[in-house]
Write a structure and sequence with these properties.
single chain, 325 residues, mainly alpha, two-stranded antiparallel ribbon, 6% strand
């Protein structure tokens, strides 16, 4: 028994009984014909390696068998638009709001905010999996039973809303902003703790957050959550209406106020270590706080520029220069 025979048997095992004979016969004729053509080209019977190369081009027996089966899909095109909208509704408008707002409320009244977020995010992950799974199972059953949803059959074109003024938002910009904000949020709520000890000039140092961060913990948390919400809106609906732009402007103005408070504090971390490192500790404390101050000064300038840019774009959109469709 050569490789082609073994291949045909492997394909047969993946086919329904009523289709096995016809498909294997058709596939066998095709493979034998291709092998004979190849043998005439080479001038000798195919070796095991050459048969293997021929069969590899056809693909694994599982994949080959699937090509002969009727088209299979979990959810067909008739129900897929409803399925996609249901997933958006469940994930973006049920799971995420519960996580963000529920987690924020629990964190405010909890003595251990980071512990609250660990539990909330864990529950959200499980909830999202269950929600997506349930929606998928329901629609798969509806598709299997050939049920048809008629909710949108009676729609009237005259009920379509007038287009709202807005401007397109590149998805790449939204995704980058969302990833950065979520990463900072995860760090801020201490899901990824900062190491207790650092090293400077070969000596171990301990860094402790200054009091300003405790004062601004919840304002910064609220700003991050609000920014995540704006990015999610931009991701779902990639154009900026005046309302979303106004919300983003308020967030950035709040960020400017927060950065101003940070810069006014002038001290961001306390550096400590062994007593015989006094000179090194003083230098490390000075340079580290100076660098942090410069970073926030730069971020503040960029935020002010973003505020001015957003105001200009809002003015331009209000004049009707762009329309979201």
């Amino acid at each position: 028994m050569d490789l082609i025979d073994r291949y045909l048997i492997a394909v047969r095992r993946q086919l329904p009984r009523d289709l096995q004979d016809d498909i294997v016969h058709e596939l066998g004729d095709s493979l034998r014909s291709e092998a004979e053509d190849r043998e005439r080209e080479l001038g000798h019977p195919l070796t095991v390696e050459e048969q293997s190369a021929l069969l590899k081009k056809r693909g694994h027996p599982w994949l080959m068998a699937s090509r002969f089966l009727p088209q299979q899909q979990l959810i067909g095109p008739a129900l897929f638009p409803y399925y996609r909208q249901a997933l958006k509704l469940v994930v973006f408008w049920v799971v995420l709001p519960i996580v963000l707002f529920g987690g924020a409320i629990h964190a405010i009244y909890s003595a251990d905010p980071s512990g609250v977020w660990v539990r909330v995010l864990g529950s959200a992950w499980n909830g999202a999996i269950y929600a997506v799974g349930i929606v998928t199972i329901v629609f798969a059953i509806l598709d299997h039973e050939k049920l048809r949803i008629t909710a949108l059959d009676s729609w009237k074109p005259e009920n379509l809303r007038e287009p709202q003024p807005g401007r397109p938002i590149p998805r790449s910009e939204t995704v980058m902003g969302l990833v950065f904000t979520l990463s900072f949020l995860i760090w801020w709520i201490d899901l990824v703790p900062v190491p207790d000890f650092w090293f400077y000039a070969g000596e171990s140092l301990r860094l402790d957050a200054a009091a300003i961060w405790q004062t601004l913990y919840y304002p910064i948390l609220a700003s991050l959550l609000a920014s995540v919400g704006v990015y999610l809106i931009d991701l779902i609906r990639p154009w900026r209406t005046l309302t979303v732009s106004a919300i983003d402007l308020v967030i950035n103005l709040a960020n400017v106020a927060i950065i101003a408070m940070i810069l006014r504090a002038g001290h961001y971390v306390d550096v400590s270590g062994s007593a015989d490192q006094a000179a090194g500790l003083a230098r490390a404390d000075y340079w580290l706080n100076t660098i942090i101050g410069v970073v926030f000064l730069t971020v503040g300038a960029a935020t002010i520029f973003d505020v001015l840019n957003e105001i200009w774009k809002m003015t331009k959109a209000r004049g009707g220069s762009t329309v979201a469709c």
